[in-house]
Amino acid sequence: MNISKSPWLLHYDGSSCNGCDIEVLACTTPVYDVERFGVVNTGNPKHADIFLITGGINSQNREVVKQLYSQMPDPKVVVAVGICACDGGIFKECYNILGGVDTVIPVDIYVPGCAAKPESIIDGVVKAVALLDKKRAAMKAGKAPVAQKED
Amino acid sequence: MAENIIIPISPDSLLEEVLKMKNSECRLVQICSTRTQDGYELSYSFGKDYDLYNLRFTIGEDAQIPSITNIYPTAFLYENEIHDLFGVQIKMISVDYQGTLYRTDKKTPFK
Amino acid sequence: MSKRSIVPFGPHHPVLPEPIHLDLVLEDEKVVEAVPSIGFIHRGLEKLVEKKDFNEYVYVAERICGICSFMHGMGYCESVEHVMGVEVPPRAKYLRTIWCEMSRLHSHLLWLGLLADAFGFESLFMQSWRMREKILDMFETSTGGRVIFSVNKIGGVMKDMDADMLKEFVKILNGMEKDLRELSRTFLENKAVNSRLQGVGLLTKQQAHDLGAVGPFMRASGIVRDTRRMGYAAYSDLEFETITSDVGDCYARTDVRIKELFQSIDIIRQAVEKIPDSEIAVPVKGFPDGEYFMRVEQPRGEAVYYVKGNGTKFLDRVRVRTPTFANLPGMLETLKGAQLADVPILILTIDPCISCTER
């Protein structure tokens, strides 16, 4: 059994403009088709190994993101997709944006772009799969899979 | 080209003018608030076919205006929006979110 | 006595790519009332006019929504152009029209896919999105971007499409038309699909008018109105019918949108034939002073852009009334009396765009 052979994705739209969301969805459809790597898009956080977040964080979705993250089983990897998820992007100066995803939960992989291209999203997912293996090995060795961030 | 008309009215005659729009079978297009130096400039836009009629008036910062949800029930979203974002005080909205439609960190950010 | 309960729907829900929350008041399985709560993706980008000047704001306007990005950029540009009295060169108008209709194609195909996914027909979802990729490839060839292009600017557009490229695009679209016919047969004639769509979520003509509905959602209920008729961009030179249906159920909404797909292809063909040679942008001098209400027909319906300038490079106010915002009351109306299991389909048939709505 090796989860990196079939990692499951959970996708949440933070406060993105939709551009990155539809690109994430486009990854799962023909032409890009990440499912050929065994990746399955799921809606249930308890099934998921990789958490893809698009868009910045505001105080409304802050708790939602935290809760989804806490419901995912270890080991887990967080991928911030698009510049808004990385640091707030063009909306950074908006009154209702707190910043990137890393203001709430630890982010492992940053995928830049506005909107992020499917090629780079897939690249991010492939990197996430490698990291998943590493975290799993660390867990087996009795170490914590991820340093919990305090807020 | 369709018409794009701005009709200046007084704040007191709002309900009366809106009722006229309703009776001439206009639909509510939008309600917009713009912050001015010492208050707000409000535009109520109504559409008929391709024409757009904008009722326009200005009010002071502390003024209260009546809700038009009795005439146009769908106005509740617009009215809650300008209440939440601008702090315009509106009386008797049919579905009043009491400032919880947008739940922004900063209260009335456009004020 | 039936039991009353309140079921929370969302914000994270598998059927919706975007977060919206509804409190559904149920009597057994029947919805009696739905109260929306929005604000999960509210960014406050209308306020950014204070920090970005009116030229930079084009990039913010394009990011109101990634699906109708081009039309948001264009609507904003056209309203500023109206305020400043700028006449856009004819070729730029045609280019805008072509990109607009391509956006409509991609948006409607995206919606068809999501609808198929909502009633559990996954391979139909994949088919729709496979066809959509062809449109995105055309965007990438002509602008460099797949979903957000940044080709609009005040006074025209930044990129041109040469005759060869346009010819190639028409060829691709002609090929697509055949695939589309096949796809639409499944949506409109398949028994299993029909059983999920027909008679579900009825909205009468009177209700659509009273609730201020816009776009295909409204046209499916029999109101004849298409903001493209106002003749912005190059639409006044092109011929097209306003597509409507009298039924007003989910099937009618699907039908209207599918017919609009073929119409968009036709409009692009006409535009490619008629496109004149000229500059693609004019230099813009000075700052906007004045106000204008601009209306644009987006894939989801009529959007209103209000721009108010004060003679400096920073605008006083930009306000966008997006189609989904206008369609929310209509959606709540169709939810009343629906079965809980139909709720995802009813929400989807207004083609909700939440990031538009909340800005």
UniProtKB/TrEMBL annotation, chain A:
Record InterPro entries: Complex_I_20kDa-like (IPR052375), NADH_UbQ_OxRdtase-like_20kDa (IPR006137)
The parts of the chain that form a coiled coil are none
| GO MF, one annotated term | 4 iron, 4 sulfur cluster binding
Swiss-Prot/TrEMBL keywords = 4Fe-4S, Iron, Iron-sulfur, Lyase, Metal-binding
Q: Residues in domain NADH:ubiquinone oxidoreductase-like 20kDa subunit?
A: 17-127
Kindly indicate where the leader peptide sits in this chain.
none
Q: Which cofactor does it need?
A: [4Fe-4S] cluster
Q: Does the keyword Iron-sulfur apply?
A: yes
Protein family according to the UniProt entry: Belongs to the complex I 20 kDa subunit family.
Protein name, entry field: Formate hydrogenlyase subunit 7
The organism named in the record is Caproiciproducens galactitolivorans
**Native organism taxonomy:** Bacteria, Bacillati, Bacillota, Clostridia, Eubacteriales
Automatic annotation (TrEMBL), chain B:
Task: Spell out the SUPFAM superfamilies in the cross-references.
Answer: Nqo5-like
- Organism, per UniProt? Caproiciproducens galactitolivorans
What protein am I looking at? Answer: NADH dehydrogenase subunit C
Please report the stretch or stretches of sequence annotated as the NADH:ubiquinone oxidoreductase 30kDa subunit domain: 9-90
Q: Name one GO molecular function term.
A: NADH dehydrogenase (ubiquinone) activity
Superkingdom is: Bacteria
One Pfam annotation, family name? Complex1_30kDa
UniProtKB/TrEMBL annotation, chain C:
Q: Known PROSITE patterns for this protein? A: COMPLEX1_49K, NI_HGENASE_L_1
Residues forming the NADH-quinone oxidoreductase subunit D domain are 120-282, 287-359
What SUPFAM superfamilies does UniProt report for this protein, alphabetically?
A: HydB/Nqo4-like
Residues involved in Fe cation binding: C68, C356
Q: Which Gene3D superfamilies match?
A: Cytochrome-c3 Hydrogenase, chain B
Q: Which cofactor does it need?
A: Ni(2+); Fe cation
InterPro entries recorded for this chain?
A: ComplexI_49kDa-like (IPR052197), NADH_Q_OxRdtase_suD (IPR001135), NADH_UbQ_OxRdtase_49kDa_CS (IPR014029), Ni-dep_hyd_lsu (IPR001501), Ni-dep_hyd_lsu_Ni_BS (IPR018194), NiFe-Hase_large (IPR029014)
Signal sequence range: none
UniProt KW keywords = Iron, Lyase, Magnesium, Metal-binding, NAD, Nickel, Oxidoreductase, Translocase, Transport
Protein residues bound to Ni(2+): C65, C68, C353
Q: Determine the domain of life of the protein's source.
A: Bacteria
Instruction: Give me the residues that bind Mg(2+), please.
Output: E46, V320
Q: Name one GO molecular function term.
A: nickel cation binding
Q: Does the keyword Iron apply?
A: yes
- Report the family membership: Belongs to the complex I 49 kDa subunit family.
Q: Could you identify this protein by its name?
A: Formate hydrogenlyase subunit 5
What gene does the UniProt entry assign to this protein? hycE
